[in-house]
């Protein structure tokens, strides 16, 4: 039978609730909150907590909302560690490497794809991530993309059809024909299993015109746009995303003043993915410039076998603080509330009444330690809908 639970003895609670007047993270010191029926029912200072059926003592740890990953490519098979090693020896990253994964992904069974998705979603979870968007995009045929989104839909509610990632081998030199095939055959079928439509609008991938055609077809089938843009070069990805009122445009490394202005006057979130820039030795995006212009910034890990084979949002927070010039508070907000906004969700990314009880406890007194102690596994407990789904024995000692 469902019962209410009081979480107490929290040294620092990040609520992301603007109604808590303590800066953008809505921090409450010496806090407590109550979970009822999988949702947050009450939040406040520990001394004023009402009674609940059960009590969980977090022993002076920090508690924050689960990370919201708004960009991952978990529908894949195969390993590209050799390509990574070559890059670290000076070879340049090009979008064409995606074709290596296409070959392997096309021959995978549903069960193999599902096992892979679950494996990496579990990795995400153990590091504090309670929501993961999952993209297809390594099939690039109608049959393989439909298979990808169908399997992904059994693992997460946030499924993206990446209809145009890179034109596969059999369409070499015939990209327009690939786009037409995607519009006529792939999108109508795959739309039944996806929520979002995505496109890689970039030199070496798809042009502005081809990307526009894909997004238009996705919208006609009820999907909401998101865009990979401005990752490797200056280009039209950002303006295209704004034109389509996309939920987010992701990577945003090479931006003109017009791109930044357009984002600042839009509902489109700019998602930074520093794991990809780290593992391709690319420039980092200038998140400071975006934030100072008033753009909403989200932060993700972008787990994929080519450019960013990490599921560690804490690692990405550390890079964002060190090299994207974000403050620790801004990076934590971007990985929680920012990710939620990039998925147009208001039930996650916060610890305030009515939100889903998705949260984590850190082996640290506050959230700053995520950037201050890079590479250290600080996440000691993760709850999803009020249920402890990952937790160390140290955390549970007091509550045995
Ligand atoms: N940028 C495009 N897609 C992926 C990488 C794809 C790959 O190289 O496999 C990304 O988000 O970085
Ligand atoms: Zn991507």
Question: What are its keywords?
Answer:
400 residues, alpha/beta, Urease, subunit C, domain 1, eight-stranded mixed β-sheet, seven-stranded parallel β-sheet, 14 helices, 34% helix, globular, binds zinc ion
Query: How many domain modules?
Result: 2
The CATH class of the largest domain, by name, is Alpha Beta
CATH architecture of the largest domain: Alpha-Beta Barrel
Distance between the termini: 19 Å
Helical amount among residues, as a percent range?
25-40%
Q: Count the strands?
A: 17
Account of the protein in words:
This protein is of the alpha/beta class and about 400 residues long. The chain folds into two domains: about 110 residues, Urease, subunit C, domain 1; about 280 residues, TIM Barrel (Alpha-Beta Barrel). Helices cover about 35% and strands about 20% of the residues. It is built from 14 helices and 17 strands. Strands 1, 2, 3, 4, 5, 15, 16 and 17 form an eight-stranded mixed β-sheet that branches. Strands 8-9-10-11-12-13-14 form a seven-stranded parallel β-sheet. Strands 6-7 form a two-stranded parallel ribbon. Helix 3 packs across helix 4. The two termini are about 20 Å apart. The model has no long low-confidence stretch (mean pLDDT about 95). The structure holds N-(iminomethyl)-L-glutamic acid and zinc ion.
Write the layout of secondary structure elements.
Layout: E1 5-14, E2 27-36, E3 39-45, E4 54-57, E5 62-65, E6 67-69, H1 81-88, H2 98-106, H3 110-126, E7 129-132, E8 134-135, H4 142-152, E9 159-164, H5 175-190, E10 196-201, H6 208-220, E11 224-229, H7 237-243, E12 248-251, H8 257-264, E13 269-272, H9 274-280, H10 287-292, E14 297-299, H11 313-323, H12 328-342, E15 359-362, H13 369-372, E16 379-384, E17 387-391, H14 393-396
Parallel strand pairs: 1-4, 1-5, 6-7, 8-9, 9-10, 10-11, 11-12, 12-13, 13-14
Antiparallel strand pairs: 1-2, 2-3, 5-15, 15-16, 16-17
Zinc ion binds at residues 71, 73, 228, 302.
């Amino acid at each position: 039978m469902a019962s209410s639970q009081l979480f107490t003895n929290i040294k620092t609670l990040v609520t992301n609730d603007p109604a808590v007047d303590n800066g953008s993270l809505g921090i409450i010191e010496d806090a407590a909150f109550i979970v009822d029926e999988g949702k947050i029912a009450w939040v406040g200072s520990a001394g004023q907590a009402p009674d609940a059926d059960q009590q969980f003592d977090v022993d002076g740890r920090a508690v924050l909302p689960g990370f919201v990953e708004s960009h991952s490519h978990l529908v894949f098979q195969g390993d590209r560690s050799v390509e990574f090693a070559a890059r670290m020896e000076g070879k340049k990253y090009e979008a064409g490497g995606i074709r290596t994964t296409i070959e392997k992904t096309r021959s995978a069974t549903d069960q193999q794809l599902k096992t892979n998705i679950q494996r990496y979603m579990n990795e995400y979870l153990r590091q504090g991530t309670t929501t993961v968007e999952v993209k297809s995009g390594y099939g690039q045929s109608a049959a393989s993309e439909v298979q990808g989104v169908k399997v992904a839909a059994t693992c997460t509610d946030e499924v993206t059809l990446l209809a145009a990632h890179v034109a596969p081998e059999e369409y070499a030199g015939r990209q327009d024909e690939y786009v037409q095939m995607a519009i006529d055959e792939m999108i109508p079928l795959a739309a039944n299993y996806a929520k979002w439509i995505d496109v890689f609008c970039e030199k070496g991938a798809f042009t502005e015109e081809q990307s526009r055609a894909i997004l238009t077809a996705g919208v006609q089938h009820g999907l909401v746009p998101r865009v990979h843009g401005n990752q490797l070069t200056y280009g039209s990805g950002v303006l295209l995303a704004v034109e389509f009122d996309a939920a987010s445009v992701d990577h945003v490394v090479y931006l003109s003043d017009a791109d930044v202005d357009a984002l600042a006057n839009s509902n489109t979130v700019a998602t930074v993915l520093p794991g990809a820039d780290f593992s391709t030795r690319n420039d980092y995006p200038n998140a400071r410039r975006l934030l100072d212009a008033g753009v909403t910034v989200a932060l993700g890990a972008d787990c994929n076998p080519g450019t960013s084979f990490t599921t560690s949002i804490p690692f990405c927070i550390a890079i964002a603080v060190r090299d994207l010039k974000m403050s620790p508070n801004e990076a934590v907000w971007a990985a929680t509330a920012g990710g939620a906004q990039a998925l147009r969700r208001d039930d996650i990314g916060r610890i305030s009444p009515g939100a889903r009880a998705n949260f984590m406890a850190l082996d640290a007194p506050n959230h700053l330690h995520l950037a201050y102690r890079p590479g250290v596994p600080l996440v000691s407990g993760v709850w999803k809908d009020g249920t402890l789904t990952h937790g160390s024995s140290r955390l549970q000692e007091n509550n045995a």
